[in-house]
Amino acid sequence: MFEQYLPIFVLLGVAFVLALAFMALSRFLGPYRPNTVKLKPYESGMDPVGQAKDRYSIAFYLVAMEFIVFDLEVVFLYPWAVRFLDMGTGTFVAMTVFIVILFIGLIYTLKKGTLDWDMKNFKYEALKK
Amino acid sequence: MAEVTLSSFIVLGVALFMLLNSAAIAVYAERRVAAFIQNRMGPNRVGPAGLLQPIADVLKLLLKEDVTPTEGNKFIHAVAPMIPVITALMTVAVIPFGEGLYATNINASVLYLLAVASLGVYGVTLAGWASNSKYSLLGGLRAAAQMISYELPLGMAVASVVIFVGSLRVVDIAAYQETWWFFFLNPLGAIIFIIAAFAESNRTPFDLVEAEQELVGGFHTEYSSMKFGMFFLAEYMHVVINSMLMTTFFFGAYHLPFAGYWLPELSPLVKGILDVSVFTIKTGFFMFLFIWVRWTIPRFKYNQVMKLGWSRLLPLSIANFIVIAAILFFIVN
């Protein structure tokens, strides 16, 4: 049973060794002459201002949250999609109701503007304080 | 159940070798096709017709200095380029290249493909985060948001194929298409899958991750030498892999169109050669499509990309799935 997974683990090993080999080769073959200016993060020729790990837009977090909801939906769909023809009307109706509820949820979040990346509704006044 | 024998490992080895080579060929092909589309020469100096250009590129990258910015996280900075390369290589284990020509036939190989493909986002995001450069961070964030957004329509499109076959084995999906390709049974799903695959591999018109006018180099701004080369290699391997997946899921895998109706019984050797050639030609065509689109269509704005993903493709793919499920249900019962 589990021996089917053997090629996958062999492949993982080979891929890992290959990736390490690329890294090691460039380390040994290339020159290494670091200096302070060279090691600074790139910022169009200026000295970097502050740290890069700053606050960023909440929209990225919202996308991640929405993703979890709908990715779970997709994961639930797979086992059902495989067997649904053998399972009769009950499961078909149940799954349809489940999908329709999530679909309504998606329409609701879209209408609410949760995933609205257009800058039309952006309030510049709020930034000025 | 199919046993894992020596031949599985031979297929695996050949597939791995071909994938690495086709990534190199894709780099060369991209530059030549780009030159053709833009009416210029392209690389033609190294070797006959410039065919040795990829080797020269790799040598140059290997001989360059490997600069690691001091203010970032050095360990993650070093690990990040390995992730997309490893995940791209790992997908070949379950793809059937011909009848019986696959490395392994695990019972959830569709889920395995989706899982491995979605791990690729870690490489890009961690690269952006570990560099401690503002351009890199923005590129990484964009990559994370964009790739997870398009994973949903991609997953739904694949689910609308699984529903026909009733099996999560890629081998079964390929075998099912002997008569009708899924492109004919499920054209909307195929189109959604192609668009989502373009977005997943961060290619134009969805290459917001490294939009050079806005983000310099995007997530790989702080990368040099072979670490950059590995991101580059991984991008082209993802092009090849996504072409293979399009072929396998929607364009009949190794079957000629409607082959079940007219193709006579062939000896195993001839059938094997035919299968692999058909698969290769289809994959080559989709690689060409990737390149063609890149040099023809301009880049979207980021809000347009997110809007297309969430308020167009996702509802469309859910509707497509449920309509197909309903039709199948009423035909069978």
TrEMBL record, chain A:
<dbReference type="InterPro" id="IPR000440">
    <property type="entry name" value="NADH_UbQ/plastoQ_OxRdtase_su3"/>
</dbReference>
<keyword id="KW-0472">Membrane</keyword>
<feature type="transmembrane region" description="Helical">
    <location>
        <begin position="6"/>
        <end position="30"/>
    </location>
</feature>
<keyword id="KW-1133">Transmembrane helix</keyword>
<dbReference type="InterPro" id="IPR038430">
    <property type="entry name" value="NDAH_ubi_oxred_su3_sf"/>
</dbReference>
<keyword id="KW-1278">Translocase</keyword>
<keyword id="KW-0874">Quinone</keyword>
<keyword id="KW-0560">Oxidoreductase</keyword>
<feature type="transmembrane region" description="Helical">
    <location>
        <begin position="92"/>
        <end position="110"/>
    </location>
</feature>
<dbReference type="Pfam" id="PF00507">
    <property type="entry name" value="Oxidored_q4"/>
</dbReference>
<comment type="subunit">
    <text>NDH-1 is composed of 14 different subunits. Subunits NuoA, H, J, K, L, M, N constitute the membrane sector of the complex.</text>
</comment>
<dbReference type="GO" id="GO:0016491">
    <property type="term" value="F:oxidoreductase activity"/>
</dbReference>
<keyword id="KW-0830">Ubiquinone</keyword>
<protein>
    <recommendedName>
        <fullName>NADH-quinone oxidoreductase subunit A</fullName>
        <ecNumber>7.1.1.-</ecNumber>
    </recommendedName>
</protein>
<keyword id="KW-1003">Cell membrane</keyword>
<keyword id="KW-0813">Transport</keyword>
<keyword id="KW-0520">NAD</keyword>
<comment type="function">
    <text>NDH-1 shuttles electrons from NADH, via FMN and iron-sulfur (Fe-S) centers, to quinones in the respiratory chain. The immediate electron acceptor for the enzyme in this species is believed to be ubiquinone. Couples the redox reaction to proton translocation (for every two electrons transferred, four hydrogen ions are translocated across the cytoplasmic membrane), and thus conserves the redox energy in a proton gradient.</text>
</comment>
<comment type="similarity">
    <text>Belongs to the complex I subunit 3 family.</text>
</comment>
<keyword id="KW-0812">Transmembrane</keyword>
<feature type="transmembrane region" description="Helical">
    <location>
        <begin position="58"/>
        <end position="80"/>
    </location>
</feature>
<dbReference type="InterPro" id="IPR023043">
    <property type="entry name" value="NAD(P)H_OxRDtase_bac/plastid"/>
</dbReference>
TrEMBL record, chain B:
<protein>
    <recommendedName>
        <fullName>NADH-quinone oxidoreductase subunit H</fullName>
        <ecNumber>7.1.1.-</ecNumber>
    </recommendedName>
</protein>
<dbReference type="InterPro" id="IPR018086">
    <property type="entry name" value="NADH_UbQ_OxRdtase_su1_CS"/>
</dbReference>
<keyword id="KW-0520">NAD</keyword>
<feature type="transmembrane region" description="Helical">
    <location>
        <begin position="75"/>
        <end position="98"/>
    </location>
</feature>
<comment type="function">
    <text>NDH-1 shuttles electrons from NADH, via FMN and iron-sulfur (Fe-S) centers, to quinones in the respiratory chain. The immediate electron acceptor for the enzyme in this species is believed to be ubiquinone. Couples the redox reaction to proton translocation (for every two electrons transferred, four hydrogen ions are translocated across the cytoplasmic membrane), and thus conserves the redox energy in a proton gradient. This subunit may bind ubiquinone.</text>
</comment>
<keyword id="KW-0874">Quinone</keyword>
<feature type="transmembrane region" description="Helical">
    <location>
        <begin position="180"/>
        <end position="199"/>
    </location>
</feature>
<keyword id="KW-0830">Ubiquinone</keyword>
<dbReference type="InterPro" id="IPR001694">
    <property type="entry name" value="NADH_UbQ_OxRdtase_su1/FPO"/>
</dbReference>
<feature type="transmembrane region" description="Helical">
    <location>
        <begin position="313"/>
        <end position="332"/>
    </location>
</feature>
<keyword id="KW-0812">Transmembrane</keyword>
<keyword id="KW-1278">Translocase</keyword>
<keyword id="KW-1133">Transmembrane helix</keyword>
<feature type="transmembrane region" description="Helical">
    <location>
        <begin position="276"/>
        <end position="293"/>
    </location>
</feature>
<comment type="similarity">
    <text>Belongs to the complex I subunit 1 family.</text>
</comment>
<dbReference type="Pfam" id="PF00146">
    <property type="entry name" value="NADHdh"/>
</dbReference>
<keyword id="KW-0472">Membrane</keyword>
<keyword id="KW-0560">Oxidoreductase</keyword>
<keyword id="KW-1003">Cell membrane</keyword>
<comment type="subunit">
    <text>NDH-1 is composed of 14 different subunits. Subunits NuoA, H, J, K, L, M, N constitute the membrane sector of the complex.</text>
</comment>
<feature type="transmembrane region" description="Helical">
    <location>
        <begin position="110"/>
        <end position="129"/>
    </location>
</feature>
<dbReference type="GO" id="GO:0016491">
    <property type="term" value="F:oxidoreductase activity"/>
</dbReference>
